Amino acid sequence: MTFLLTKLAWLVLQPSNLLVFTLAAATLFGWRRLAMAIVAILALVIVLPIGLWLTAPLEDRFPRPAAPTGQVTGIIVLGGAQEPHVTKSRGVVALNRYGERLIEGLALAERHPEARLVFSGWSGRPGGRGGSEQLVNAAFIELMRFDETRVVYEERSRNTWENALFTKDLVQPTPADTWLLVTSAAHIPRSIGIFRSIGFPVTPWPVDYQTATPFGWPRHFSVAARLTDLDFAAREWLALVFYHLRGRTDALFPAP
Fold it and tell me: What pLDDT is attached to residue 24?
C-alpha cells in the first residue's frame, strides 16, 4: 500500500505536474494572484537551471572512490535504467537516461573477474506494468557476451528500499566482503543511507552525472530539459526526507 501511495503522491507533487495543475485550477476558478505567481515561478524554472543547482549537491556528496585494488566480492547495479516494455515489443535492449548504470557495472565486472554481477530490480511501476527489468538485463548480458554464470538477478524489488533488503537476502554478505554499489550519482546518498541502515556495507560507485564540476551554465536551452531536471532533483530530495522520516536511512543527508 505504501508503494502505491508514494507513486500517487509523486504524481501530484512532481514539480512540473504541480505547477501546471495549480495554474489550471487558478485559471479555472479565477484566482488571478495565484495564477500570476505560478507563471512567475514557471518563468524562473524555465530561465534558470534550478534543477541542476539542486542536483549538484547530491552528485558531489560521495566522490568517486579510487579503483579497488583487492578482491571485489560483487558489483550491485540498481534498477531504473531499463525500458522492459520496449525491449519486449522491439526485441532489442532498451535503456533510458540512466543506462550508464549497466555499462559501468559491466565494465567493473570485466576488471574484476572474481566478482559477481548483481542486477537488482523488478519494476518500479504499479503492478509491474511493462514487465520485469531483468528481461532487459538478460538481453544486455547476452548482447555483450558476458559470462552468464557470474550474473545474479534480484527480481522482487520495486524501489531502493527493497533493492537493499532483497539483495542482502539474496547474496548474504559477510563483514569481510567488498561490494560496489553502482547507481546514479544523485541517487547515491539515499542508496548508501539505506544500505547502511540495514547493515549492508557497500562502496558507492556513482555514475550518470548530470552536472559538471565546476558547475557551468547549460550550453543548450530547452524548456522540457529545465522541467525534467527540476523533477529529477525534487524527487531525490523529497525521497531523502521521506525515507529518513520512516527510519529507512541512517541520516537525513547521508555523507561519506
Answer: 95
